[in-house]
Amino acid sequence: MQTVTIAGSQVPAIGMGTWHMGDDPLLQAQEIEAIHAGLATGAKVIDTAEMYGSGRSETLVGKAIKGVPRDQLYLISKVLPTNASKARMERSLDASLKRLGVDDVDLYLYHWRGQTPLSETVAELQRLTEAGKTKAWGISNFDVSDLEELWQLPDGPKAAANEDLFNLGSRGVEYSLLGWQADHQLPFIAYSPVGAPDQLNTHLGRNPNVLKVAKRHNVSAYQVLLAWDVSHPQLLAIPQSSNADHVKENVLAGNLQLTADDKQLLDEAYPAPTEKLPLDVL
C-alpha cells in the first residue's frame, strides 16, 4: 500500500474524509460502521474540521474512535478563518479536541485564508504545536502565491501539509502547485479525490476510458480514480463515504498500480493543464 510521510509520520496514502458526516442522527450507526471498516482495512488518517456540521462531524469521529488505540489513528482537523486569531484559536482547538475525545490531533490546518494576518495565524499554529495540542500544523486551500507568502514568515516553512481539491477532473494544481510543494518537501492532501458530486454524476465515474482501466484491473471506477491520485508522490487522498463497503474499496485502491498505458488513457480523457488555472475550491 502506498504511503505518505507528514511531519515524520508515515501513513497510508488513502485515508477517510468526513465532510457531511454526523449531520443526520439516523445515519450515525452506519457512519461509525464505515469509519470502523476503513480502519480495519488499513486506513489510519481521518480528516475532519470544526466547520463540518458545526462540530457534528468531529463528535461523530470521537464516537467512532473511542477505544481505538491512539497510535493507530492519524487525526486531522481544521480551524475556521474566523477563529484563526491569537485570541480565538486555542479555544477553537480545545473544543475540537473535546469533541474528538483526544488530547491532541496529529495535524491542525488553517481551513482557508480569512481576515487575520497570516503572520498571526502561523505564530499561533506554531505555539499550539509547541504546547502539544497538535503534533504538526498546515494549511488548506492555499495556492502557490499563498505558499510563497507563507514561506517568507519565520515559522512558515514548518507547515507540514497543504490540503486542496484535486482529482482527475480538476487537475489545475498540476501546472505549478504540485511541483512547488515537491520542491519544498510539502506533502499534498487531496480532498474530493474522486470528484465533487456533480463531477461524479456527470462524467468521472462513467467515462469510457476510466471504465476501460477499471475493467482491466477488475476494480471499480472509484478505485481507478483514487489510484491515479496517489500515483503522485507524497499525496494523501481523503475520500468520503458513509458506506462500509465503499470505504473498504477506497482504502484497497492504495494497492492498485496503474500502468503507463492506463495513465495515458486517463490523460486522453482528462488532459493535464497547459496554463495556470484558478485554484478549485468547494
TrEMBL record:
InterPro entries: AKR, NAD(P)_OxRdtase_dom_sf, NADP_OxRdtase_dom. GO terms for molecular function: oxidoreductase activity. It comes from Secundilactobacillus silagei JCM 19001. Residues 13-270 form the NADP-dependent oxidoreductase domain. Gene3D superfamilies: NADP-dependent oxidoreductase domain (3.20.20.100). This is Aldehyde oxidoreductase. The record marks 78 as: Lowers pKa of active site Tyr. The active site is at residue 52. Substrate binds at residue 111.
